[in-house]
Amino acid sequence: MKAPSASPRFLVVDDEEVDRIALARGFRRAGFHCELTMARDGKEALGLLQSESVERPFLVLLDLNMPRMGGFALLDAIRADSSIRKTVVFVLTTSDDDADIENAYRKGAAGYVVKGQSGDTFVGLASLLERYWRTVRLP
Description:
five-stranded parallel beta sheet
């Protein structure tokens, strides 16, 4: 089992620039130093995940509703590709619909977080992910 590296890498997949900025700010406010790579939609994210020249992220933070390729389609593509199938994915979305939550877990999401109205959601998420990163061991 590998120990966590000094600074984890996260891939944030969200078409809303405001949310990407707020998430990065939340990580800074929480004092969690990590590398955040941003993708605007599922197609861009899939390209990054499948690239041989890009270091794999520790986990993916995935919005559901995006143009070109939405979150559920990206989850399907990740689970269908043997080289990235084990990627840890947390859904981070505004949808609190029970059907979306159930579908995300059925497709292998490790967690489901509903974006709140304030930036505190992102600070709390950063703290949760820091504890997760320090606790779990991945292959």
